[in-house]
């Protein structure tokens, strides 16, 4: 059953010695299905991808997917001990990212909770950034 939720995401990106933060607090939907948790929300002008929808699927500590649909499409696959290649659509063309050095911490349950995703992005095996997403879900 879909539940309305407030979703808070703190994204941290590390590039060389620089550290950048992005915070998002939005209303969305929270669903538990077949042991996985789904967080879905609409993007706005501030995120730079207005008209897109983001769904984050978290399968415990084993796997997470960040899926964007709408004006652009992409799926990032985050799995500990694996490197996945993921296509990311932009208005200028597609980029093929490598996703590796992953870690997932999931403390979600039927009533919300929190999760943390860590991963590295590379292009042509060259490190672009290390990333962390701290996610908190509160049911409305």
Topology of helices and strands:
Elements: E1 3-15, E2 18-33, E3 36-42, E4 53-59, E5 63-69, E6 74-78, E7 84-90, E8 93-109, E9 112-123, E10 126-139
Please give a structural write-up:
The chain has 140 residues and is mainly beta. It is built from no helices and 10 strands. It has a 10-stranded antiparallel β-sheet, with no helix packed on it. Strand 4 and strand 5 form a beta hairpin. It starts with a strand and ends with a strand. The mean pLDDT is 93.
Strands, total number: 10
Tell the overall outline. Answer: globular
Q: Could you give the distance between the termini? A: 14 Å
> Largest sheet, described in full?
10 strands, antiparallel
In N-to-C order, the SSE pattern is: EEEEEEEEEE
Estimated radius of gyration: 15 Å
Helical segment count: 0
Structural class: mainly beta
Overall mean pLDDT score?
93
Side by side, the strands of the main sheet go 6-5-4-3-2-1-10-9-8-7
- Low-pLDDT residue spans: none
Indicate the percent of residues in helices.
under 10%
Strand content: over 45%
